[in-house]
Design brief:
Layout (H helix, E strand, L loop, with lengths): L1 H38 L36 H19 L9 H14 L8 H11 L9 H12 L17
Length: 174
């Protein structure tokens, strides 16, 4: 009788602990899980440049995504050059009329690819980028040049290091 009672109590206790633990586990798990899914593709550092990232937006699987190492943040010697090369690549691909400028739809595709190539989450709608793009359209022609793209990318993604473009530097050789 005593033995049976003891067994019953153990089981009840066990169930309670499992039930309780399970509940706890779920609430604890769901928060960091979202977080880790969020930052892992960036090795934790690109996060600061990840303006367009959203929880559960798995951009690392999108075509063109490159894993870029931002350990120590944005390194102008490395990342500025990388950004210029990638900008040249997306211009070759998207500048359909070869005028060295990107208009709205061309620009969005190019910017999206550029973000992925730089290991960052791409924007998910043209509106959100174009509004900011038009503030950066330095000569007001409604189009984006490679240099404007460079400035825009850094501005949009929140990269403050490296070449801060002064209006006077616009003539800088690309």
């Amino acid at each position: 009788m005593h033995h049976g009672h003891h067994g019953g109590r153990m089981m009840g206790y066990g169930q309670q602990v499992i039930g309780h633990h399970h509940h706890n586990n779920m609430s604890v798990m769901s928060a960091p899980q979202m977080n880790s899914g969020f930052s892992v593709p960036n090795c934790g550092v690109g996060m600061q440049y990840n303006r367009w990232a959203r929880p559960n937006f798995n951009y690392a699987t999108m075509p063109g995504y490159c894993n870029v190492d931002y350990t120590g943040g944005w390194n102008p010697n490395v990342h500025d050059m990388m950004l210029k090369n990638k900008i040249n690549q997306v211009f070759m691909q998207y500048d359909m009329n070869r005028n060295g400028q990107l208009e709205g739809p061309e620009f969005y595709g190019a910017y999206r690819d550029l973000c992925l190539m730089m290991g960052m989450a791409p924007p998910q709608s043209q509106q959100e980028v174009w509004q900011v793009a038009m503030q950066t359209d330095l000569n007001g022609d409604g189009m984006i040049s490679p240099m404007e793209m460079f400035i825009l990318f850094k501005k949009l993604q929140g990269i403050n290091s490296g070449m801060m473009m002064q209006p006077g530097m616009m003539s800088m050789a690309w």
